[in-house]
Automatic annotation (TrEMBL):
Residues 127-236 form the GFO/IDH/MocA-like oxidoreductase domain. One of its GO terms (molecular function) is nucleotide binding. Residues 5-118 form the Gfo/Idh/MocA-like oxidoreductase N-terminal domain. The lineage of its organism: Bacteria, Bacillati, Actinomycetota, Actinomycetes, Kitasatosporales. InterPro entries: Gfo/Idh/MocA-like_OxRdtase_N, Gfo/Idh/MocA_Oxidoreductases, GFO_IDH_MocA-like_dom, NAD(P)-bd_dom_sf. This is Gfo/Idh/MocA family oxidoreductase. SUPFAM superfamilies: Glyceraldehyde-3-phosphate dehydrogenase-like, C-terminal domain, NAD(P)-binding Rossmann-fold domains. It comes from the Bacteria.
Amino acid sequence: MSTLRAGLVGLGAMGRNHARVLAGLDGVDLVGVMDPAGDPHGAARGAQVVATLPELLALGLDYAVVACPTALHEEVGLALAAHGVCALIEKPLAHSPQAARGLVDAFERAGLVAGVGHIERFNPALQSLRRRLEAGELGELFQVVTRRQGPFPHRIADVGVVKDLATHDIDLTAWVTGQAYTSVSARTLTKSGRPHEDMVMVTGDLADGTLVSHLVNWLSPLKERFTAVTGERGCFVADTLTADLTFHANGAVATEWEAIAAFRGVSEGDMIRFATPKREPLLVEHETFRDAVAGKDGKDGTGIVTLAEGLRTVEVADAVLEAARGRGVVRLPGARRPAPETVTGARPFA
């Protein structure tokens, strides 16, 4: 593999993690980092630090990682596409569906590899869960429940908890199930004194009828990253903080009571905790994107998160905020139109 020249835009908390991984990534040379504030933490690992995007582009990049504030993703991404530079853009793809759609179009027109940094797709627990669901180990799916909560991140100022955190759960739910969202309803709270929401509760439907529920906040001292998928054969529980995956099987209890002998209820069965290799998700994400830029398949069959997928996640997040404002049900683009009486107060998402 010939060495790829990589650049990084942004040296915030996530940007510093990207710099660490890029600096040690086989087949990649981190040649430059752009941040107007410089590099006070010494995170550039010897790469040249510049203050503007034109200076970074002048270094001659094969690809760039975009880890600046979400509000700047559109501007930076369009500039990279115009200069023929592939891009891995941190989630969410953009601050609005319109901006995300513009990025999709720009990179498609340029014929460039581009992806979105939805890192949860590279968590070992969720990768194992997805493979098991694809193999039919759970049978018919009934429900996906996620909880993502923790302390307030003072580094986030340009978006609320829906676009900062809930986009993780929106993307991973659609990805592990292979199903698109068709409708959402939501409630939000704003308690930190900022203009953006700090807590959201979401309920929704997937295309196959699976119910979804997301609880997301940055108001809790408890840090939790929980995903449970329930189906006809039991329940998978993934903890992405520890990368553990557990299966709780439905039990079968024999009975001679004729009145209930024919009733097949759910009872507690065996519990299995799976042993899986636990590589750092960010490293796997970077290896996958590097291989995509080099024209090679991602490792373990895991491809990059495409901009089109990132756009869909932004659309769902926008629908969540619309539903919270209107206190009703919002249908997603391409979803079957509901009966009029099922829509309560919110205008259709378009």
